[in-house]
Amino acid sequence: MNKEKISELITVANNLVDSQTGKSLTDVQKRILQQVMEGKKLKDIQVTGYSDSTVQRVFCPKLWELLSEATKQKVRINTIILVLDKILKQKSGSNNESEIAIPIEAVSVPPPVIPKRLRHNLPAPSCTTFIGREEEIARLLELLSPRHSAHLVSVDGIGGVGKTTLVVEAAYRCLNASDNNEAFLGVPTFDTIIFTSAKQYYLTSFGLLPSLAPRRTLRDIFRQIARMLDQLDITGASFEEQLDLIKDALSYQRTLLIVDNLETVENQQDVLAFLYELPPTVKAVITTREQIVFVPVRLTSMPEKDGVCLIQHEAQSKGVSLRHQDQMALYHVTGGIPVAISYAIGQLANGYPIQEVLERVSHSKGDVARFCFENSVKPLSEQSAHQLLMALALFPMPALQDALVQVAVPDADSTINNDLARLRGLSLVRQENHRYSMLPLTREYALAELKAHPNFEREARERWIGWYLSFSQKYFGQDAKEWQQFDGLDLEWQNLQAVIEWCMVEGRYAEMLKFWQNIEAYTHIMGRRESRLRYWDDRLTWTAWLIQAAEQRGDWLAAAKVIVDRAWTLTSMGKQKHLLEADSLFAQAWELRHHQEPLFRLSLARNIAVLRIQQQRFDEAQQELTQAIELLEQTQLEEQQRLEQLVQIRYYQGEIFFKKQEYSDAKILFQEALELAQSMDWRRAIFCTQNWLADIAIKQGRLDEADRLLKQGLRVAEANGDKCRSAFCQRSLSSLAKAQGNLVSARSWAYAAVENFEKLGMLPEVEETQILLQTL
């Protein structure tokens, strides 16, 4: 189809759309129509400045829909020409008839021009397909537009994050738009594109390669500009004359000037002054690892979706097959840094196994670490900023500023904020809500730096332990049997874990025991709120270490307490193997009871009774509780302590009678436990007991009473974030709904209970509830 006919058909389409919507076709839509009429298939349609997928999956379908509405006919890529040509012929043959009244106006499709080739010295793109960074590339192209007032733009981020790749991609889009005279599509156009780089090394799949001719001085930049403008005689003039001649030459043409790797340029302030004074015809872009106060485009690590997409693309292009778990491992080790991803895939393509590649990437003295961090960290040596960087590596999760400063530079003065700002400016650390963090690769490098400074590491670790001992002290003595608030501890939990585990490895018994005493209640309660697998696995690991360490030191007082705590945890977990170990531990604790106060022996007897209930050995459980009553009568306790012990004894006696299906006796005991708990306002005990009373009410046919107790209990449990209590209420509500004959509701409550039990890792309770589901 000739250009005249294409122009006529696009005019028809434009006028139809205008008559229906009051708006003309956009330049992008006209460009798409033009390519369709030139015979291109959907997969070949492109618009400069937009990704192919956006054009083909978003713009084209919307255009077909718009034309369908305007023509009152179904329009698709293979019917556009037929539909528009038919309308054009009807218009031509209608003479004075008013079937279709579409005024023919001059089409705004750009007239054919002979493409001009602008001068440029851009390096070849480092990737065959540009992946991710859609917001950043759009932002950069917007800043390069003549409509935007910014004439000096910085693209900053840590080494290897893709600064040069982003700028070169944007430059090539501008180049294509300029060559094809496509300024009407919204992509900036230039007469000349000049690229100059001070990069000293390139990271490739076979290691670091030196740059053969880095442009590291302002005179180097002048020579590059003069060469691209074909005015080499400029370089023979004095510096001042060169400056004036270059500014004058650039003022006559729209120029994109790229200065790559500013941080390795000599006399950076002179270079920035030159860029700042350039005429308005020039858009200057600098890439740098340091955050500079110009109009910025800031790059961080790629999000997981884009990072995995890049891994898949690199693997496919290099013929590497990767399992999903290997892709995820690679993403997490690289932290989403593109250069590290490309290097790793290249190593795999060279035949190295995945595990070795992962180790190479994270190695603190390897090519990736040298490329990304060496030039940024070396100038910090022996300074507070370096100590802050090394200390931050001790924190696996974002660190509070107070904690970081106290660990790194305890005698810090007011300049510490400048040091932190410097680390942020170098993109070595990130700040959010008064917390500081670093990427995984940065952390590995910083840990190596820490190891290389043993005196500082020893002192920093002592301060690290001291800070967290002081921090956790405020949670000492909390009652795990009541609802508690642990404001702030959840945010510090993983950092606290790191300190505790280091104390274990280093054999720091005194500190480890103190940590345990401070957070014992927290780990128990979080097992009810969040996950027994997450928090109670740690309890088991730590108590195993503490028991052995206490026994080795003959600290029988501490050993007995930790043994009982471990046994109680295993009893609560409920699996047969757990109950067997708990039985052995309680026997061991009983042998150590003489090292403890009477209250310990009373609690031990009660805890053994709970184990016997779990083992379905009800008579033995009753004997233990009877012994507990005797010990309670013999022991001098404060009234609050006495009531607390009595509530628990009556509670477990009631559970024994319930499980023996002696519901009337169970109700009496639970009622007594409830009244005692209410007298001391022990809220969690109140609602646990009411749950049992509701279960008894269901068995005895008092369904309204059960409904009231359970719904009240569920509301309170959810308000306190107690998933464990919520799950038990939901399971009882399922039994209630079954008794009411409402099987749909019964199944719904049972599924909700199973979901909560599964989240908590309460596997025996999951199995029991699934048995209930089978009866519904």
From TrEMBL:
Pfam short name (any one): HTH_VMAP-M9
InterPro entries attached to this UniProt entry: AAA_16, HTH_VMAP-M9, P-loop_NTPase, TPR-like_helical_dom_sf, TPR_rpt
Entry keyword Coiled coil: yes
Swiss-Prot/TrEMBL TPR repeat ranges: 647-680
All copies of domain Orc1-like AAA ATPase, residue ranges: 129-281
Signal peptide: none
SUPFAM superfamilies linked to this entry: P-loop containing nucleoside triphosphate hydrolases, TPR-like
Record-linked PROSITE patterns: TPR
Keyword annotations: Coiled coil, TPR repeat
PANTHER family referenced in this protein's UniProt entry, alphabetically: HTH-TYPE TRANSCRIPTIONAL REGULATOR RV0890C-RELATED, REGULATOR-RELATED
Protein name (record): AAA family ATPase
Source organism (scientific name): Iningainema tapete BLCC-T55
